[in-house]
C-alpha cells in the first residue's frame, strides 16, 4: 500500500511539473559534499538568434543560367590567404545550388577543375562556398584574370 501511494504521488508530481525537471548532484566546494540541485532543462537551452528566417514565404526561383548562381567572390584577408596557401576560391552563391552543380558551374565558366567544394550557410542567409582547385590550376591566376587582385 505504501509503495502504491508513493508511486501515485510521484506520478502526480511528474504530471504537474513535467518530465523535464530533473535533479542532478552538484559538488559544493566549501564542504566537499554532494548536494542535489534541481534544474530545468528547458531553461538551460540557449538558442542562437538568426539574422534571417529559415523559412521564407517567397517561393524558390529556378536559375537557368550558371552565371546567375555565383553572386560574387569574396576578397577579404581570409579569402586571399585561402587563395595563396590552399589554392581555394571563396565565393558567395545562390542558396539552392548543390556542391556537384557548383563544381560544374565553376568548370564551365572559368575553365578550371575543382577537386573539392565545401559550403556553409551564413547567418545573413547566403551560401558561402570554398572551391579547392586542382593542383594544375592556380587560384591566384584565376583571381587576377577575374579582376579580384
Give a written overview of the molecule.
The protein contains six helices and six strands. By secondary structure, the protein is an alpha+beta fold. It has two domains: 43 residues, no CATH class; 81 residues, 2-Layer Sandwich (Alpha-Beta Plaits), CATH 3.30.70. A four-stranded antiparallel β-sheet has the order 3-4-6-5. It has a two-stranded antiparallel sheet with strand order 1-2. The mean pLDDT is 81.
> Which regions have little confidence, pLDDT < 50, spanning 5+ residues?
none
The CATH superfamily of the largest domain bears the name RRM (RNA recognition motif) domain
Number of helices: 6
- The rounded Rg comes to 27 Å
CATH topology name of the largest domain, in short, is Alpha-Beta Plaits
Spatial shape? elongated
Pattern of helices and strands: HEEHHEHEHEEH
Q: Which structural class fits the helix and strand makeup?
A: alpha+beta
Helix content: 25-40%
Strand residue content: 25-35%
Give the N-to-C terminal Cα separation: 83 Å
Quaternary organisation: single chain
Q: How many distinct beta strands?
A: 6
What profile does the largest beta sheet have? Answer: 4 strands, antiparallel
- Text of the CATH class of the largest domain: Alpha Beta
Amino acid at each position: 500500500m505504501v509503495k502504491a501511494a508513493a508511486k501515485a504521488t510521484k506520478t502526480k508530481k511528474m504530471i504537474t511539473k513535467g518530465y523535464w525537471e530533473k535533479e542532478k548532484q552538484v559538488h559544493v566546494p566549501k564542504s566537499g559534499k554532494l548536494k542535489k540541485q534541481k534544474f530545468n532543462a528547458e531553461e538551460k537551452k540557449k538558442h542562437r538568434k538568426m539574422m534571417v528566417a529559415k523559412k521564407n514565404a517567397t517561393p524558390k526561383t529556378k536559375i537557368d543560367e550558371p552565371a546567375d548562381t555565383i553572386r560574387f567572390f569574396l576578397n577579404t584577408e581570409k579569402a586571399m590567404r585561402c587563395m595563396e596557401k590552399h589554392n581555394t576560391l571563396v565565393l558567395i552563391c545562390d542558396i539552392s545550388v548543390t556542391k556537384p552543380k557548383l563544381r560544374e558551374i565553376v568548370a564551365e565558366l572559368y575553365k578550371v577543375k575543382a577537386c573539392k567544394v565545401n559550403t556553409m550557410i551564413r547567418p545573413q542567409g547566403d551560401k558561402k562556398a570554398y572551391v579547392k582547385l586542382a593542383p594544375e590550376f592556380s587560384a591566384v591566376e584565376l583571381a587576377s584574370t577575374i579582376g579580384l587582385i
